[in-house]
Each structure stands twice: as C-alpha cells, then as structure tokens.
Amino acid sequence: MALFLLWIIFGLGVLIQLIYLLPIFGRTAFFNSKKQKEQSENEEGVTVVISAHNEFKNLKVLIPKLFEQDYSNFDVLVIDDRSRDRTPRLLAEMMDRYPKLRTVTVKYTPDHVTSKKYALTLGIKVAKHDVILLTDADCIPASDQWIRKMTAPVRNEGMTFSLGFGGYEAIKGFLNTWIQFETIQTALFYLSFARWKAPFMGIGRNLCYRKSFFMDVKAFKDLWHFEGGDDDLFINKYATGKNTQVVIDSDARTISYPKDNWKDYFRQKKRHLHVGKQYKSQDKMKIGWFAFSHLLFWAGGIGLLIYLGLEQNWEQFLIVFGIFLVRVLLVLWIYSSANRKLNGTKTRSNILINDFLYIWYFWGLGTFSHQSKDIKWK
C-alpha cells in the first residue's frame, strides 16, 4: 500500500511537471524571434518613468545611460519621492545637461495610500507622452534598443501592456546563483502564461503601458492600501490575452545589481511574495499547481528511492532514477534555453540544487511572506 501511494504521488508530480515544463514554459524557452511579424515602425513619443527614493548613486549612473537610447522621440521623468540624500541636487544638475529630463517632487504621502503608487500616479499624470515605460532607479537598460523594443507592442501593435524581463548582474557566490535561477523561474511563469493569452503579472523594472488607460481606470483604484503591487497587481487586474504582449529579447531587458546578503534578499522577496495572495484565484492556481506538483515530484521520488532501495527492488529503483534523470535534463534544457533568450548568456551551475531549494523557498518563505504585516517599500 505504501509503495502504491508513493507511485501515485510521484506519478502525479511527474505528469503536472511535464505539462508546465514543455507546453507552458516552452513558450518562452523556445520562443523564435525570427517568426515575429514585421511591423511598420511608428516612433510615437515615449516617457520613461522612474520613481526614486534616496537613489542618488543609482540615478547618477542610470540617467546618462537612458539618454544613450537609439530612439528619437522620448523623454525621462524622475519622481523624487521624499529623498533625503543628494537626489534633488543631482536632478537639478542633470536637467541642465539633458533637456529631455523632467522631475516631479513628492514631499509627503497621504495616510490612506502607499508611497510608491502615490509617487507613480503623480508622475504618470504629468507625463508628456501617452506611452509610459517604467523601470526602477537601480536598473540599467541592457542595450540602446531598450526603448524601441520594449514599447513596440504598444506603439505598433495596438497593445495596452508590454511585459519585459528584468535580470540581475552575475557576480560570484551562491546567493547570486540562486537569484539568477529564481529570476528565470519567475520570468518563465509570467512571460509564458502571457504568451498563452493568460497574463497575470509583470515587473515594474521593465513594463510598458498607456497613460490614457492608466487614467481611464483611475490609476491604482482598489489597490492603494496594498504595499507593493504597483506592477504585478495592476497587471493582474487589467491585463488580458487581447491587450497584452511580451517582449522576449535580450536587448530589451533591464539589468539590476542584485542583493549581496541573505537578509536584504529575504526582505525584498518577502515584499514581492506578500502581494501574491491578492492575485485572482485562477492566477494563484497557476503558480500553486506548479509548486504542488514540484513538491510531489521530489517527495514522492525520494520516498520511492529510499523504499525501493531498502526493499532491494533494483528494477523499479532504476525506473525512478531514470525518470529523475530525464527531468533533470529537461529542466536544464528549459532553463538554459530561457536564459539564452532572456539574458543572452549561458546558464549558471547548480540548477539541480536550486530546483530542490525552490521547494523550501516557495513553501517556507512564501508562507511566511503571506502572513507578514510589516511590509514596506522604502
């Protein structure tokens, strides 16, 4: 009976995992950019919007990089959200150097709203152009084609939303290896489901939509009281298969410097995971079924290997081990291909270890984050 139950657990996990890895995640991993339809270029105006709180060091690097973009019709709007460092002075100096740089200053945040959403709302309201391209102060465009490629679905294809990828700089250490893995895992979820005409989230590090739509839906109405969610909850509420497109191109990504210690990383991920409980039920199931089947696969597989080893049932032991090996190779194939598409680089090592650790990340940190109440932006 125990053996039969372990086989059921393991088999169910394998079946659901195969569905996610091939028909779903494969939509991103094996995306063929050469098959994209050629669109007539329309250089409609674009406003790059950045909300910044005490981001002097990052803005000093980012702003000059933005004005290296190969796109003729754009401006940059930086929202100075109650900064107490040298950000105001830097922005004043930068506006003298870059005529297309504009700023909005936020001096206080009302009690009934969250700070970043309030800052973004004030900025987007006064944005010069209808096409809004969002990123964060600690991000750098990966190429001078970022604006052109990220906004193309909105400018040329009539889309309301364009979802992009935000990667992290590769540095030494296991924490960074994990960050690279988890970032690709998250991208496989939201980009793949969006390509399947079922978008459910996006990231504020690389997101484009129309100002007119933002104003029509009254900005972050019904989302003000959630800390975070200015990107994923907004997309979760309004994005559909008909108004949303993804951009899978390493030239269209942004690059951020990753957290370099576990304490800061856990604080960041706690904030990100916390808003996930506000997703629509069907969208929570998209992530939940993967995590559940992932747990079944590892628990059932390890349980079977131990049981069959003790029983010296080597024939079935080799079958289970073979299935494990096939999935390992499949995961390596999917994640390596997705990484090449999104980051334009080779995959870091330790995929098998990180794949196992994802169980503890999702069920441990995820559960803790859902129960947390001390979530803050900055």
Note down, in words, how this protein is organized:
- By secondary structure, this protein is of the alpha/beta class.
- It has two domains: 115 residues, no CATH class; 237 residues, Spore Coat Polysaccharide Biosynthesis Protein SpsA, Chain A.
- It is built from 13 helices and ten strands.
- The radius of gyration is 22 Å and the shape is elongated.
- The model has no long low-confidence stretch (mean pLDDT 89).
- Keywords: Glycosyltransferase, Membrane, Transferase, Transmembrane, Transmembrane helix.
- It holds the Pfam family Glycos_transf_2.
Characteristic terms for this protein:
single chain, 378 residues, Spore Coat Polysaccharide Biosynthesis Protein SpsA, Chain A, 7-stranded mixed sheet, 3-stranded mixed sheet
Give the topology, please:
Elements: H1 2-24, H2 26-29, E1 46-52, H3 56-66, E2 74-81, H4 87-97, E3 101-106, H5 115-125, E4 131-136, E5 139-141, H6 146-156, E6 161-163, E7 166-168, H7 174-195, E8 207-210, H8 211-216, H9 232-238, E9 244-246, E10 254-256, H10 262-274, H11 281-310, H12 314-342, H13 351-371
Parallel strand pairs: 1-2, 1-4, 2-3, 6-9, 7-10
Antiparallel strand pairs: 4-8, 5-10, 6-8
